[in-house]
Amino acid sequence: MADITIRPMDADDADRVLAIYQAGLDTGNASFETTAPTWTTFDEAKLPDHRLVAVDADDTVLGWVAVSPTSSRAVYAGVVEHSVYVDPAAQGRGVARLLLDALIASTEAAGIWTIQSGVFPENTASLTLHERAGFRIIGIRERVGRHDGRWRDVVLLERRSPAIT
After folding, report:
1. Which phi and psi angles does 110 have, rounded to 5°?
2. Torsion sign across C-alpha atoms 62, 68, 70, 76
3. Over the stretch 63-80, which tens digit does the pLDDT of each residue have?
4. Which of 27, 65, 120, 137 is buried most, with the most CB atoms less than 10 Å from its CB?
5. pTM of the entire predicted model
6. Strand 114-119 relative to strand 61-69: parallel, antiparallel, unpaired?
7. Which segments constitute the N-acetyltransferase domain (predicted)?
């Protein structure tokens, strides 16, 4: 993993970020979404200070992580929902864990006390990754939405910062 660097995401990364996102969506086990958004839509939905990419020695984006606010209410200012995606060719190299660790450091430095996510139960690699990064399962939302014509459950995960009390 010495050849992998984490850096802030910028607009020059848009094509790779969206291609990696689409590759994840194409698996059918990453999201209810089926098509990656435009860069403008993606950019507007994510908090700018917590968008990171993992790059190799050639600065090729291998994966990304980003957060969105869960609510516009002030009481929830310290709660975000995250997404993490890795290029299929880079999976199994620890890229997602590096991204999550960097995200945790970034959000804690900003006073964010909870990172949450929803994962399809079939996405066992993501569930294992999150558990190892300190996330816990809150519960399962059963048949919460339809995806490709069938009802899907979502496992709710969260990581509470031990540093922010």
Report:
1. -95, 5
2. positive
3. 999 999 999 999 999 999
4. 65
5. 0.94
6. unpaired
7. 4-158
Q: What is the 3-state secondary structure (H, E, C) of the chain?
A: CCCCEEEECCHHHHHHHHHHHHHHHHCCCCCCCCCCCCHHHHHHHCCHHHEEEEECCCCCEEEEEEEEECCCCHHHCCEEEEEEEECHHHCCCCHHHHHHHHHHHHHHHCCCCEEEEEECCCCHHHHHHHHHCCCEEEEEEEEEEEECCEEEEEEEEEEECCCCC
Which residues, given as ranges, of the chain have pLDDT below 70? Answer: 1
Cross-strand partners of 80: 69, 115
The Cα 60–Cα 161 span in angstroms is 31
Closest of 129, 53, 120 to residue 87, by C-alpha: 53
User: In angstroms, how far is the first alpha carbon of the chain from the final one?
Assistant: 33
Six-digit token string for 109: 């430095």
Position 10, amino acid:
D
What is the model's pLDDT at position 68?
Answer: 96
Identify the CATH number of the domain defined by range 5-160.
Answer: 3.40.630.30
The token pair at 75 is 């009481």
Count of other CB atoms within 10 angstroms of residue 54: 27
